[in-house]
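Repro:
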Amino acid sequence: MKHVLEVCLVAATMATGVMPAAAQQFPTAEASKIFAAQTLQRGVSVNMAATNSAVAMPDADESDAWIVTVTRDGGLYFGVDAVTPDQLTEAMRSRPRNREQKLYIKADARATYADVERVLPIAHASEFETVVFLTSQPGSRQPGTMVAPRGLEVGIDPAAAAQLAVSVQLADSGQQLSGLKINNRQIPWANLQNTLAQLLQNRSEKAVQVTADGGLNFADVVRVVDACQAVGARVVLFTSGR
């Protein structure tokens, strides 16, 4: 009977991602181990940036998904394994993959963009043309429901980014909101989406180059990518390739 209860607790935890009420009634080492194991299976926990335009990425839940996590303090993980940038390069070079697979970056919204950006040239060297920033969504899901991961796909080829006519620049202004420019013209954040829509409405290719200072919060970059997605534009990140 005890074994059956433990199996039920694991199933409930996997379905909801939350410790079930039954487990709360058993504050034992066994219950703690059950919950801890599930936490490890779900990967490294971070507070992802919230978005409105991200799309479902169900493949990010597959056991063979390529997921790089960047924690708030700049820690780097490939799957659940802590790595240095050099170790990540080697791991991605040596791990077999289906060429249709995507690379998912699960970064804390409060991480610096520089900590996230250092993954991009590693991904590009491993022949990824795009990466997917996994994000959270507004609102809360109902207990017991399964919600597919969601994310925003961005290009990471610096050569492609340099050819785009519309560019968004984010700079560290020393204020709560970073400085925002479109084609070198300062604009308020509130005008971002409308300005993008106007600039792109008559273009056959709706694409935007995005550059950002490394010291900014990653959430600021995600906010720009989200606005581009909302107007039907793809984003290519312009990086130094370092």
